[in-house]
């Protein structure tokens, strides 16, 4: 057996050696995450019908690597809340969110999920951001499939650019604590 000499490769000029590989790994993991998101549709009203159109051949959400809808919270990455959420449904929504593994993202679709919509009543939750943190809001009543796809692409950008260590940061833990989530 011959002795082999192992050469170390220096980082390119202007880049610190220790952060070079970790930064590139974050980029690779982000790219993989962004193009393989599995959505969990939590649809209660007319926004759910508009969402169904995004999976059809005309709009085709599978172009974004998300044709596999996950109806199990433990295997989903993106919680897509669509429609009116009653206050009695809020604990169920929070439980579904808690069952999802990290990293997880939330897309609030339509006026009802985002702000209660036209239903300013005692029984309707005035925005899901009162019980779980929301990453992207999609406006409209109901929003067009193009708007839903645009919101989904914004989630992809978040997944692509998020560092792997962000979920362990004190700021993220404080955000979850503000929602009563440990």
From TrEMBL:
Q: Where in the cell is it found?
A: Cell membrane
Q: How does it sit in the membrane?
A: Peripheral membrane protein
Sorted alphabetically, the keyword list is: 4Fe-4S, Cell membrane, Iron, Iron-sulfur, Membrane, Metal-binding, NAD, Quinone, Translocase, Transport
**Cofactor section:** [4Fe-4S] cluster
InterPro entries recorded for this chain? NADH_UbQ_OxRdtase-like_20kDa (IPR006137), NADH_UQ_OxRdtase_20Kd_su (IPR006138)
- What PROSITE patterns would the database entry show? COMPLEX1_20K (PS01150)
The processes (GO biological process) annotated in the record are: aerobic respiration; electron transport coupled proton transport
Q: Mind telling me which Pfam families this protein's record contains?
A: Oxidored_q6 (PF01058)
Q: Name one GO cellular component term.
A: plasma membrane
Q: What does this protein do?
A: NDH-1 shuttles electrons from NADH, via FMN and iron-sulfur (Fe-S) centers, to quinones in the respiratory chain. The immediate electron acceptor for the enzyme in this species is believed to be a menaquinone. Couples the redox reaction to proton translocation (for every two electrons transferred, four hydrogen ions are translocated across the cytoplasmic membrane), and thus conserves the redox energy in a proton gradient.
Q: What is this protein called?
A: NADH-quinone oxidoreductase subunit B
Q: Name one GO molecular function term.
A: NADH dehydrogenase (quinone) (non-electrogenic) activity
What gene does the UniProt entry assign to this protein?
A: nuoB
What EC designation does it have?
7.1.1.-
Record's subunit section: NDH-1 is composed of 14 different subunits. Subunits NuoB, C, D, E, F, and G constitute the peripheral sector of the complex.
Sequence positions that bind [4Fe-4S] cluster: 46-47, 112, 141
Catalysis performed (reactions)? a quinone + NADH + 5 H(+)(in) = a quinol + NAD(+) + 4 H(+)(out)
């Amino acid at each position: 057996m011959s002795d082999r000499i192992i050469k170390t490769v220096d980082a390119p000029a202007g880049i610190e050696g220790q952060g070079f590989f970790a930064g590139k790994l974050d980029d690779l993991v982000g790219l993989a995450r962004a193009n393989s998101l599995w959505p969990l549709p939590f649809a209660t009203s007319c926004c759910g019908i508009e969402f169904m159109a995004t999976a059809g051949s005309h709009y085709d959400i599978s172009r974004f690597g998300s044709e596999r809808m996950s109806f199990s919270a433990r295997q989903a990455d993106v919680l897509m809340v669509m429609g009116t959420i009653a206050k009695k449904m809020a604990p169920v929504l929070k439980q579904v969110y808690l069952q999802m593994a990290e990293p997880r993202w939330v897309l609030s679709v339509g006026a009802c999920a985002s702000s209660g919509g036209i239903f300013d009543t005692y029984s309707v939750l005035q925005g899901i951001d009162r019980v779980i943190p929301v990453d992207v809001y999609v406006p409209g009543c109901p929003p067009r499939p193009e708007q839903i796809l645009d919101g989904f692409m914004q989630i992809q950008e978040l997944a692509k650019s998020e560092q792997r260590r962000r979920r362990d940061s004190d700021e993220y833990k404080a955000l979850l604590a503000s929602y009563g989530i440990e």
